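Worked example 4.2. Below are the chains of a multi-component assembly; read each line carefully before continuing.
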Amino acid sequence: MVMIEYSYAPQFMDLGAFQPINKWLDEKTFIELYGDAALGWCAADGQIYGTPQDSGAIAMFYRQDLFDQYGLTVPKTRKELIEQARKFKQVAPSNLKYYAPPIGNTMWWIGQVWMAGGKLFDYHDGNWYIHFTNPIAVEVFETLGACFDEGIFDLEMWWNADWFNSLNQGTTAVVENGSWFAEWLRYNAPESEGKWRVAIPPQWNPAKPTNGMLGGSGFYVSSHSKNPEAAAIFVNWLNSHPNSLKCLHNYSNLPIMVSTRYEEVLDEVSGPDAFFGGQNIVETLWEAHELVNTTFVVLPIMSNVDESLSLLIQEYVDGKIKRFADILPRWEKQVISTMKEFGYSNMITGKLP
Amino acid sequence: MTDEMKNIKMQEIMGKKKVSKRTVATIKAYLFLAPFLLLFSTMVIYPIALGVKLSLYGQRGARMWYIGFQNFATIFQDSRFWESFRIPLFLLLVQVPLMIFIATLIAFSYERLQKKGGAFFRFVYYLPYTIPGIVTGIIWSYIFSDGMSPFRTVIDLLGYSGTKILTRQHLPSILLVIILWAFTGYTAFIIYSSLISIPKEFSEQAQLDGATFWQIAFKIKVPLLKGVFIPLFIFNAIGAIQVFNEPWMLSKLVILPSNYTPAMYIYNSAFAQGRFTYAAAMGLILAFLTFLISLYVLRSAAKQMLAGDSQ
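Applying the procedure described above to all two chains together yields the following structure tokens:
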């Protein structure tokens, strides 16, 4: 079996790298154990190929010390997030950032659209649907874009020494990332102990709360597996048995597991967390996870989708693109042309299923 | 048996002995060569052969099928592949000549300082070459990072706080600095080794005629160093065409297209986009181009030398 991030699993399904395990794990049991949405991460065309492990539910990580120092409150909606950013920029020194999304990291941007309850593409009945310029995605890019254009949100390269340093030193007040980021912070920004807190990400539509994911991985049975039955039973036990879930939480540094049975061990594994100033973050992250009610299937050419967006954002940073929101239609055009170049004739553009 | 027959018999035996001696020597030679041949065939010949084979296949995931030379035909129309030669071309035309020039000046300084701590400078300038390219890339990515750069304070003091140090526009010049830093000392060392083997009589004669040190250096010694400049140019040209480590490491600081250099494009095609057979074909074309450049430099150098001899 293989462990693969949900977003990248569909392209392996498409290539025939996994084998179906429906014989040993039927759809009804799967939904009972992992929920409806998870089916989209582990199955295609009715064939189940594996089981989901950890959740990449998006959460808002913020610096309580900076919030206190500059008199900020925890934003509950996107509107509040923008208001708080504007306030912060007025009072804080110019080297401090309130909210600085990544240059690149397509999954982060996809997560934003997902969080708003939208999609950019989908797979249905053997066809790839591509429609970036749909109303929800446009709203996300227009709203975030206006903040970049105004200068109240920043853009920065993530996952390099500079970024790690900024998290440790506290030069960025708010980071939105997958639940797994909690453990990541603990180990990589040790000097910031006690200063971080976690919250449900500010909602796009507070009347209809939703959330998206960023990362998270499943275990899939490879088509090379000589004993698919044993593999199927194992991946199911691994990701749904309470004892296994407890071990995964305690030893694998994964805060939240997807299985509905995680609730049974939640009290045992959660509690006040010193790194997060005594907050019970597992409870908050579980809440964030429960808001994920849709699935997001990504295209089978993710590395190209990523390169295309990364370069466009870099062009915006370099001043070659003036309005951030103009990136979306250009990104769509490039992705469609790459899909064609890679020989995907089963593509429907301009609408979603 | 007559004496004559005895002689013939002896000759036959001797001859046989001679043959077997030669055979033994051959076997011995191959035994000595065996470790090299084994490594060479498994680590060089076999991958090349496999690369050639792969380049003739189409691929989608784990499925592969024979397509003949179609990959090569596609590459000739793939503008992204040919665009990737911009950086190597820049390095070939700017970095390589510049570095050989600076290294020559340094080599002459070594010669001048022979008894005044020359060995110390040779050692210090050589040091960067001993650091692996990837490590060099990491160190420089700290130096050029926005928040942690040691130059940050100076830049801020000069009134440029908030200015990005590393941008995509600056990148070619930054690559130039890194590569010059890493390889100039080594190149100077090689030039210096040739320099000290030039017979003293040449410079002594010129000195008697009143030539200065730098006149002797550029008018007498530099032309004699041609033999070392040519291989240096070829090696550095190969390095320029295959440049990968430095831009790869800096791509953590600034977004670079996957085809920033040919080697990056090949790597990304194989490992990010899963197009292994296409990448293999591009690898072969890159190797062939490198071979052509080396051949061209060698041939034109040989022509020049022959012309020089006949004068």
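Take a moment to check your reading of the output against the notes. Chain B has a mean pLDDT of 86. The two ends of chain B are 68 Å apart (CA to CA).
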